[in-house]
Structures are given as structure tokens and as C-alpha cells.
Design goal:
With about 90 residues, the chain is mainly alpha-helical. It is built from two helices and no strands.
């Protein structure tokens, strides 16, 4: 049990040291976004809007299909009941 705790502690210390070194000593890379960044953001925005409306339309179609199926079931049950009563 103590050996597992020691290995776990060493792993945590190792990860902490690596994280600390990367935060302190590595400088950020400044890159030019330019028009590519703007175009990418627009594409993402358009995609989100399209998927929202597509999911909305699909939900509406799903609800319509459920209504149609329930109406068909009710009509078929009525026909069966009419045949039984004759």
C-alpha cells in the first residue's frame, strides 16, 4: 500500500514540475490570424445556425409523423370495431 502511494506521489510531483516549467519558461507564440481566422469564425457561426434550424425542422417532422401514426392507428381500430359489430 505504501509503495502505491509513493509511486502516486512521485507521478504528481513529476507532472507538477513539468507543468511549472512549461508555464514559466516557454514563451507564447504570437501568430498572425489574418483573414483565415475571420473566415473560419464565420463558417463556424453559419454551421451552428444551420444545425439549429435543421434540428428544429427534424423535430417538427418527427412530431408530424407521430400524429399521423396515431391517426392511422385510431382509424384502423375504428374499422376493426365496425367490422366486429356487424
Amino acid at each position: 500500500m505504501k509503495r502505491k502511494n509513493l509511486i502516486y506521489l512521485k507521478k504528481n510531483i513529476y507532472l507538477f514540475c513539468i507543468t511549472l516549467i512549461t508555464i514559466v519558461f516557454i514563451e507564447p507564440a504570437y501568430a498572425y490570424g489574418g483573414p483565415g481566422l475571420g473566415i473560419g469564425a464565420l463558417i463556424v457561426l453559419i454551421t451552428v445556425i444551420i444545425t439549429f434550424f435543421a434540428s428544429f425542422i427534424l423535430k417538427i417532422f418527427e412530431m408530424i409523423n407521430k400524429i399521423i401514426k396515431s391517426l392511422k392507428n385510431n382509424i384502423s381500430k375504428r374499422k376493426i370495431n365496425k367490422k366486429k359489430t356487424k
